[in-house]
Amino acid sequence: MVNFDYQTPTRLIFGKGVVDKLQEVMAQFGPRVLLTYGGGSIKRSGLYDKVIVLLAGKQVTELPGIQPNPKYNPSVLEGVRLCKENDIDVILAVGGGSVLDCSKAIAAGAKYDGEPWDLITYKVPIKAALPIVDIITMAATGSEYDCGGVISRTETNDKVGIMDPHLFPAVSIIDPSYTFTVPAKQTRAGVADCINHIMEQYFCGEHIAMNDAFMEGAIKSLMKNVKIVLQKPDDYEARAEIFYATTLGCNGIYALGNSMSGWPMHAIEHALSAYYDITHGEGLAIVTPRWMRHILNETTIERFVSFGTGVFGIDASLPQQEIAERAIQAIYDFYKEIGMPMSLPEVGIDDSRLGEMAHHIAVNEGLEHAWAPLQEADILAILQDCMK
Ligand code: NZQ
Ligand code: ZN
Questions:
Q1: Ligand 2 centre and the CA of 101: distance in Å?
Q2: For all residues of the chain together, what is the average pLDDT?
Q3: Is the preceding omega at residue 183 within 30 degrees of 0, hence cis?
Q4: Which residues line ligand 1 (CB under 6 A)?
């Protein structure tokens, strides 16, 4: 078991009706609030109107229109400008992971005099950030319980992860009822994202039995409950169990005591969504079985056997190679069954830029140091396999 040093300062308020606590939560911060949100889902669901009522007495500045795969320009830059001009005390992010990630970059940029991109790319350390409260409306990223965010810069095809303890939300308010309106495409993608977050922590060198059981249980819960909500979008219990699993996704808590894997599937997917602006969870579902097939070997096979027997109940007495191959097929079949696109052409990506993306990933993501090391040629082979 590897050593760990773990602290999460975020207060989680979870359950039916908890948005009513917003007033009490916001009372601990100053009066000037930057309210950030996306393209309009919170207006359609009625959440925006409710939030505005609960913010009575505050001075509210709004930053609407934050897009999926949130953009540095204009959203982060605009948010930083609004914070500085209005002397903002706290950011209230209402929406999916993209709104929250963008708000994290804004929170750091607001406390820095230079170009915010310096912080996002670790050129300059983050020394301070505005406090963030969020009402998260998508069960997917786990951004509500982690200190990371992912920002895209269109002109350079960069999609960059930023992590810093200053970026933990102060308070995350999570009412699974607000996910009843999430479209099927995003519901599936959110679950695929979380399953992948768990796999990125499961497929590693050093691991302990307790974490295996915790993660296998979470994946089984996600697989069961996504089928329920795709049939019945307003099933509260199923939506709540999905949200619980996704909230823990990137916090580290699933795998305290495990060694790091290098998060290879995320590294590869981030290039896909940077170059083609695809939905993150869909890109991950496509990459997952191909990455697995590529890295399956004598060193890694133990993880596949554990995964196959633990998650899919594959007969443990079968030869190891057969268990591993069945496990990879099972995850592919599951995604196919729930309606995920399972090849790059299905999400509008042709083979014209695979080499360029493989090079970008190899240069920027450090995957040669991952648990299952990948060189540029390996990344290209995985991407080529995603075409079929
Ligand atoms: O923009 P609006 O109108 O709000 O619509 C959004 C958006 O179109 C919609 N939506 C969100 N909540 C809804 C809803 N529609 C109806 N009802 C609701 N309750 O869903 C669409 C997608 O939203 P988005 O925020 O982009 O989705 P998600 O939460 O999956 O976030 C994806 C982003 O997070 C990054 C991804 O790379 C991607 O950029 N990630 C962030 C991580 C983190 N902070 O730890 C880790 C992840 O691995 C991931 O990389
Ligand atoms: Zn993810």
A1: 12
A2: 98
A3: no
A4: 38-42, 45, 68-69, 95-99, 101, 137-138, 140-143, 146, 148-150, 178-179, 181-182, 186, 190, 193, 250, 266, 280
